[in-house]
Amino acid sequence: MINRLETNIERMESRLHEMGLRLSESSTSTSQEFLCSNAPVLEHSDKNTASDPDFANFCAGPEPNRVSTTSSADAIPGIVFSYQQVENWPPCLASFSIPRSLVDAPLSRGFSALSQKGIEWISQKAGNVSLGNLSSYLSANDLDENPGNSPLGGPFPCRVFCSLPTKEETVSLVQEFIEDFNMLFPIFQRSELLSLFNQKSLDMRVQTPSQWACINAVLATACMIRPRDEGSGPDHHQKSWLFIQNALEVVNELCLGPPNLLGLQALLLLVTFLIGTSAEHPCGFLLSAAIRMCHELGLGKTEDGSPLCMQEIQHRRTVFWIAYCLDRELSLRFCEPPAQSDEDFSASLPMEAPTDSKYTIPTSDLSGSFNAFRSCCQLAMIKGQLYKDLYSPAAEDRPLSQIIASVGVLDEKLQEWKRSIPPEYQPDNGGPDRPRSTMSPVLLLLHYSYFHCMIAVHRRVAAGGLSIGTDLLEKNDFTSSPASLSNPRVLLSTSLCSKAARASINLTNYLSQENIPFFRVFGLLPSGCINSAFMEHNT
C-alpha cells in the first residue's frame, strides 16, 4: 500500500514538473515560474515527439509571438507569470464556483467563492477560520466583475478593424451620442459614459472587454446617426461598421466571462444598432445573451434591501426594461419566441422616467407630465401577449373562433393603453397635423410601435381573407362561442390594418436624418400591408 502511494506521489510530482512547477527548488528562491494561459501549457516530452513524426514536425515550426513577464531562455511558449507560493496562483486556474445546490436560499443562484458574498458564506459555514488568503484575492471592484475570475479568463486574440479617432473627434461623437441617441435609448448614465471616455488612454490593451465593446459601440452608433453633410463625409457610415466589428471581436469574452453591467450595456447597444438592419440571427443571439446576463446580475428582481443608491437602482431597472422592450419587439417582428417570459422576473414597471432622457413630456395644460417610458414598457407587455396568442407555434392550430376572440381582447387592450396617454400625445388622435419638426423622437417611437401592434393584431384575421362580418359567419359557427364577437372591431380588421399602415407610413414625414437608420425598418411592415391589400382588392 505504501509503495503504491509513493509511486502515485512520484507520478504526480513528475506531472507537476512537466506543467512547469519545480517542487525540487527551495521555497526561499526569489521566484518560481509556472505557466498560466487560459489553461496550463504542457511541456512536450521527447517520448511523445519520437512516437509521432507529424507532431515532431509541428513542434519544429517557428514559435508564435508571446507576451512574457520573465526573461527565461528555456521558457515554454505561453504567458509566464512569477509567483513565490503555490497558494498565490491566480484564480483563473480553477473554478471556485459555489453551486446553487449548496446555497441556503432556494431562489439564489450560485456565486464565486472568491467574491465578497462567497467569503461571507464560507465564514458562516466554517466558523472561526482565517480567510486571509481568500480575502487577498478580492480587489476594490470585486472579482465578480473581473474577467480573470473565470476558467476561460485570459487574453483572447482580438483584431482591430478601425483605429479610434482623435480625442477631439471622440468628444464630438460622444456628445452627439448622448444628445441624439441616449436620450431615446437611455442605456447609459451620462456621468458613466463621460467617465468611460475620460480615461488617459482608450487603447484596447488597457481596456476590459466590456469597456472596449462599449467604446466602439458608442462610436459606431454616433457615426451612424451623424448627418451625411457633417463630419468626414459619406464614409463615416462605413466607419461605423468597422467600429461595430471592433466591438463584435470581444463578444465571446462578454458572453463567456463573468457578467457585469457594462458588458450588458454593450450587448444592448449592439442590438439597437443591428435592429435597423433587420438582422434576425445576430440580434436574437446578442439579445438572448443580454437577457441571461440581466438575470445573472439580478436586474429582473425587486430591489428590496439593496445597498445601492436610488439613482443606481433606477438605472439598473431602466436597463432591464430596455432589454425587455427589445426582446418583445424582436419576438413580434421576426415571429420568434421571446428570450424570457413574464414569469421569469419580478421587477415592477418603472414609475419614473429615466434621468438624462426625453421620456418625461410635459402636458399642454401644465397639470403634470407624461411618462412615456412606462407606456413603452406597458406596450411591450401587450406585444408579448400578442405573440403568444396569435403568432406562437401553439396558436397555429387554434380554432378560428378562438383566434377572433383573442384579436378582440388584444384590440381592447391596445385601445385601453391608448386611452391612458394624454389626448394630445395619442397615436392617430385625429387632431391637426403637427409641424414636421415638432414631434419628439420618443413619441415617434411610441406611435410606430402602436401602429405596428395594430397591424399585427388585425392582420391575423385580415390575412385569412375575412374582410366583413358575412365572411366570418360563413366560415365559422359562432353559436357555440358568442364571446368571439364581443368586440365588433374584429369585423373591420382589414380596414383597421390599412388605416394603421397608412398612419405608420405618414410618420416618415417627421423623421429627422439622424433617426432614419433606426426607424426605417418600421416602414417595411405597413408598406407590405398596403401592397397586400392593393393586390387583393385591386384598389
UniProtKB/TrEMBL annotation:
Domain annotation Xylanolytic transcriptional activator regulatory: ranges: 283-356
Annotated keywords: Nucleus, Transcription, Transcription regulation
Annotated TM spans: none
UniProt-listed InterPro entries: AtrR-like (IPR050987), XnlR_reg_dom (IPR007219)
SMART domains xrefs: Fungal_trans
An example Gene Ontology molecular-function term: DNA binding
Matching Pfam families: Fungal_trans
The protein's name in its UniProt record: Fungal-specific transcription factor domain-containing protein
